Amino acid sequence: MDQKIVSLAAEKTADRLQEFLQAMKDDDLANLLENQAVKGKAPGPLLRAIFKGSPCAEEAGALRRLKIYMRSIHLVESGDLQKEVASEILGLLMLEAHSFPGSLLVELANEFVSAIKQSRLKNGKSLELLPIILTALATKKENVAYGKGELSGEECKKQLINTLCSGRWDRRCVIQLTSVFKDVPLTAEEVEFVTEKVLRMFSELNLQEIPPLVYQLLVFSSKGNRKKALEGIITFFSELDKQLSEDQSGDELLDLVTVPAGELRHVEGTVILHIVFAIKLDCELGRELLKHLKAGQQGDLSNNICPFSIALLLSVTRVQRFEEQVFDLLKASIVKSFKDLQLLQGSKFLQNLVPQRSCISTMILEVVKNSVHSWDHVTQGLVELGFILMDSYGPKKILDGKTIETSSCLSKKPIQHACKLGADILLETFKIHEMIRQEILEQVFNRVVTRASSPISHFLDLLSNIIMYAPLVLQSCSAKVTETFDYLSFLPLHTVQGLLKAVQPLLKVSMSVRDSLILVLRKAMFASQLDARKSAVAGFVLLLKNFKVLGSLSSSQCSQSIGASQVHVDVHSRYSSVANETFCLEIMDSLRRCLGQQADVRLMLYEGFYDVLRRNSQLANSIMQTLLLQLKQYYEPKPDVLPPLKLEACVLAQGDRICLQEPLDYLLCCAQHCLAWCKRKAVPLQQEEEEEEEEGVYQELEDLLESLTTRMIKSELEDFELDKSADFSQSTGVGIKNNICASLVMGVCEVLIEYNFSISNFSKNKLEEVLSLFMCYKKLSDILNEKAGKGKTKTASKTNDSFLSMKFVSDLLTALFRVLLWRYTSIPTSVEDSGKKEKGKSISLLCLEGLEKIFSAVQQFFEPRIPHFLRALGAPAEEGEEVDGSVTHRAAFQVRQFQRSLLNLLSGPEEDFNGREALLLVTVLSGLSKLLEPSSPQFVQMLSWTSKICKENSQEDASFCKGLMNLLFSLHVLYKSPVTLLRDLSQDIHGLLGDIDQDVEMEKTNHFAMVTLRTAAPTVCLLVLSQAEKVLEEVDWLITKLKGQVSQEMLPEEASSQTSLPNPPVEKAIIMQLGTLLTAFHELVQTALPSGSCVDILLKDLCKMYTILTALVRYYLQVCQSSGGIPKNMEKLVKLSGSHLTPLCYSFISYIQNKKSRSLKSTGEKEKGKAAAVATAMARALRETRPIPNLIFAIEQYEKFLIHLSKKSKVNLMQHMKLSTSRDFKIKGNILDMVFRGEEDEDEGAASEHEGQDKEPAAKRRKK
């Protein structure tokens, strides 16, 4: 029968074919097609024949076609057909779909919608036909019956899509359905509807199905709504990551969260690749991505920035046109994140309002960790980001070429944290990815070599960490290391030392690298440049320290773990140690040649020998012999000869140039330290026969030092020709020589002081010798200071480095510390014997200065050791402290000690008050307060105590007042907002200084007795204004955050419906802060402040206040509904600003200008005829009134936006605003004539200044 139909279709006319088909039942015809298709026969000819004999113009033919379409769709979905057969059927159905009438197209489409909703589609192959049907329907001009009415083809299509997207989708068909819509012409609204439906389906799919769906969604997004698609993808994976990290699962993502993390990372990597590929094809997608993530910077970073979006951004850097923009965005986000964190850590007010979110640095390091899952497309971006952060935010060179590094994490600036993050990224990437290691190392080495003039300590630290992690791995990169060694002679000394220290573990595992270094160092030893020879010494000393000879003692304070290399070396430790002996002795021979070179080279050698001895004790004999022989050249062996040193031999005269030849003080210091260490450690000897010889060296050196001590004490300054009559000027050869010799003598005295103290065991005779040596040192020091003071320059008074070692200082301080602590806390300054004073300072005050410096040094340089330090101080049992108490408990005990001392000082007679002592106590308390946990009762107690002291004690000392008030503010901001404190202080200042209107009688408040007539301005006033500025910064930050959140939550077309108040608690807090701060400014602008910094800063802070009020008004313009209005407390704030601040600001401006006019007039009268004095006064007046126009502009901007808000909120906010007469610049001629007649005898310069002041606001008025 099929042959019959096909043969009839071959005829020229279709009449017989139509008759034949009409005679057949539709079901029989459909079965015929099905049988042929299932058997694998080509159904094309039969289908074409059926379509030819079933014209859509006839109802029967159209219905027959519909029946065939229905059966064909079921056939394709059944899975019984071969792939080629199914494709042929679908192709023919697509070709004929446009000839269907609209009503049948609707029926066909409804069949698809029904099949999708009822999950009847088995493979979704037939869905390829749906876009053709929908497109055909959209092109129908005539109305089509749909439901109970008639709609146009376009509207039918819209309804079908609406029905389809509102219903349930079978998860097996989601990808095909998404692909369907990309071929259908859609309106913007329909695109959005489909996008939202697809995004909702993400959570219902298996994880492996997500990447192809994302790809189809991205292709579909080319129709529009790219932002929504990207935002949905990022949000989905962000939530998934968050739930996975918290080890929790929500109902919607239950199936996904239970998959292994590794599988999720692979899926994320594939999705990122799809997005990057789509961005390469559609640049608008990339622009939308950047726009979306940049918008997040204004609000909460964590809403948009997450590990997934960071990984995506880093992958997008492979697209050249977006590379720079992406890195700029990441840099800005990183610095902003650290700044936000710093702001939050310093304010309890912000901590209570803003939840702590994960820092962006944590997210980026999470990306590094995740990149192990074949994220090669992310790795390159990570490396580039790491180097960009280190290059941009590394230490900068300051004027004297040095850099300032801070060790405390709390004191680091955001840019320093950003640099540290860059180093962490590179180190972690190096650990994970072998393929990228070579590139990282090359870039680090290149920066070390090419940026020698810039600070590169951060790169050297990174290099050290990399090599410490895997020295064996670096053997494959040894060529780059040896290439870098070739530049050692041309690098600054500190760079060479840092580089060699960093590569030290590599030298132990790679003989070739070590040999290359030795060759370079030997060449450098004889280079013409001094720095090259110093670098050679530094390199050789490093080698001696790290290649131990067999039998050397380990030094706990110098031991260094070198990770994997240690294992490698220990395997051959016996061989290595024996070989090292010959190696080290060769180096010692090379170093002995340095003893004939310049002083700087010798000095480096002496500084290095002691470290070598501690690390490599078997070299003790060689080092001690070398030092003793060198020392004997400058030592007078006869015991009765004074002075005992040949200082002349230490100075070299080359023509008119006098310079130091032998740094004798450094030589003696090195010898003394080496001797002390050998005696203390009882260094064993290499060979029995050398024992006697080595003991002789020790004894000979001890005898030499004893003789030196005795004869130095006996020697007078005249013996050195360094008495008061000597020439110490820097302009003559004799003067330069005497300065050098004096420096040497003082250094020798210091060395002998330490030597004798170390062997004294606190015996009276030895300590007397120490004091005698100190008196010799002091006499010479006083002479030098006196001579330097008389000279024109201060170059001679430059302080030399001390030769007292840290061990000596620590031993001395250990002995003195408890004495200092006990003496100060037990014997008040007021009862101390007045005869025991030196330079006006009591012994107790000196004790306190010592304590303050110790506390400060521990906190600044030894932060990790603070718990041990406090534990060492101890706490009496009766205080109830635990033996192993926390830092807070131990610090609180010390706080109480010093609180007691300050109370004793304040409660004593006024004439006994010592401002310096009080300030030191406050400084110590400030340092200790930083160790208290802000949430602890001890912290609250200290805040209450400090507040009580400020309220009840009145002192005129400005420095003490400033220190105490700073302490109060620093504590207060960590407990709650200080705005009420600022208001009370402002009232006190106003009451003390008086009103700008002299006729007003002030009611003096007395909240804080510490605020007196002397301390109110500028001391307390400037502190209040500084703190007010910080409060304004916090409020500004909050408003910016709110604006960002609103702009993220609002869609442009939904601006009127999406704008309910998003964060009432934050808004209320902002308004309360500004309201209270406004009352503080209300007091200050009425205060008769003295001219100068107080007025300048108050004007600037007022300007900032109005700028932030304007920002708040603009925020409400953004969120205000036309029907809803604004909060009542916002209305109250506006009313308060109009009644209590704006009018007073104009009055204050008039007060300032009148005061300046009077000042200029009096200056002109006093200095008549002195144009320079008048000009100076005019310039000062102009400078001090410069902020006034800015303030007036800020007020007017505030009022301008208030008018806009009034219109939008239907609330008259301007009823409390009164335009000031200060802005009325109408010129009254009669008054002007009277003024000119009265001032015609005044100085011309002063008059022109008045004229300039009158004209400037008028110009501003015209601009408006």
TrEMBL record:
Bias kind Basic and acidic residues: ranges: 1247-1264
The protein's matches in InterPro entries, at most eight in alphabetical order, are given as:
FANCI (IPR026171), FANCI_HD1 (IPR029310), FANCI_HD2 (IPR029312), FANCI_S1 (IPR029308), FANCI_S1-cap (IPR029305), FANCI_S2 (IPR029315), FANCI_S3 (IPR029313), FANCI_S4 (IPR029314)
Q: Where is the FANCI solenoid 1 cap domain?
A: 1-53
The record's keywords, sorted A to Z, are: Coiled coil
Q: A Gene Ontology biological process annotation?
A: DNA repair
Q: Which molecular-function annotation in GO is an example for this chain?
A: DNA polymerase binding
What positions does the domain FANCI solenoid occupy?
A: 64-280, 378-541, 805-968, 981-1232
> Residue limits of the FANCI helical domain?
284-370, 555-784
Name of the protein described by the UniProt record: FA complementation group I
Q: Quote the gene name from the UniProt entry.
A: FANCI
